[in-house]
Specification:
Elements lengths: L3 H7 L10 H14 L2 E2 L1 H4 L8 H10 L6 H15 L2 E9 L12 E7 L3 E4 L11 E2 L6 E2 L5 E6 L3 E8 L1 E13 L5 H9 L4 H4 L2 E6 L2 E6 L2 E6 L2 E6 L3 H12 L5
Antiparallel strand pairs: 1-10, 2-3, 2-9, 3-4, 4-5, 6-7, 7-8, 8-9, 10-11, 11-12, 12-13
Helix pairs in contact: 4-5
Length: 250
């Protein structure tokens, strides 16, 4: 059993605990605003092992973040414990955004409450609230940014509009278990073809944009404006992690 009180404290959530649409939306926002999307363990030579308890220990007890398997793996476990119906779905990041497109390269969630919703707290810059799966029109949120989900009942595509539409990933409705993603998790930790091995990154959503460490750059976007500066040394790097992401590396 996961400690719901500890998780809610970690994401600063004090809302309802019943499995409702309102609670799902609030939890999704709270997670994205408090838990970074990051791959720092890979660049410190620390293996990432799939498992709800492992992800809980890292994200909640160690006050860290993680990539999709960790963030969405934990989020699925929390939602299920609250009484939500959750399906883990295999997703493949599409080459249009630089993805490898491998099988089980991304983990996405379908949550059923007052309809079916695409939930994803592990894809970096994306939608802040879940997207209705059975609604092919654009859904606007996060300022003027638009998102779209289209599917044929078996395979679907999630797309984001940034000037024009960009397909982000393809997902499959067939239910999966966390262990099914072991191959993808291993690939992203070890392959030189994975974006996660190529550079370290830590990124978190804010109400008006995003804050990101990308290798040796610190980037802040706010209301469409982008500000970027170099990270000068290790002390600066660790200070940025503490101040902007709440992360202290041991």
């Amino acid at each position: 059993m996961l400690n719901l009180d500890a998780y809610f404290s970690r994401i600063n959530y004090d809302g309802p605990r019943e499995p409702t649409r309102k609670a799902l939306f609030a939890l999704h926002r709270a997670h994205l605003f408090t838990v970074p999307f990051e791959n720092l363990d890979i660049h410190m030579g620390r293996p990432i092992v799939l498992g709800e308890e492992n992800h809980f220990e890292k994200i909640v007890n160690e006050h860290r973040g993680g990539f999709c398997f960790e963030n969405n793996g934990l989020f699925a476990g929390i939602l299920r414990q609250m009484g939500f119906t959750v399906t883990m779905m295999e997703a493949r990041v599409l080459p249009s955004i630089g993805g490898s497109g491998i099988r089980f390269g991304h983990l996405a969630l379908m949550v059923e409450v007052d309809g079916r919703w695409l939930a994803d707290v592990g894809f970096g810059e994306a939608f802040i609230e879940p997207l209705r799966l059975d609604f092919p029109a654009a859904q606007v949120q996060a300022g003027n940014r638009a998102f779209r989900v289209q599917h044929d009942g078996t395979i679907g595509t999630y797309a984001m509009k940034d000037g024009k539409w960009y397909d982000q990933y393809e997902f499959r409705f067939a239910p999966r278990q966390l262990s099914d993603f072991s191959e993808g998790c291993h690939f992203h930790q070890t392959s030189p073809l994975s974006s996660f091995t190529q550079k370290k990154m830590c990124s978190i959503a804010t109400p008006h944009g995003r804050k990101t460490i990308s290798q040796d750059r610190f980037i802040v976007t706010e209301d469409g404006a982008r500000h970027e500066r170099p990270i000068v040394d290790d002390a600066d790097y660790h200070a940025l992690l503490r101040e902007h992401f709440g992360v202290t590396l041991g």
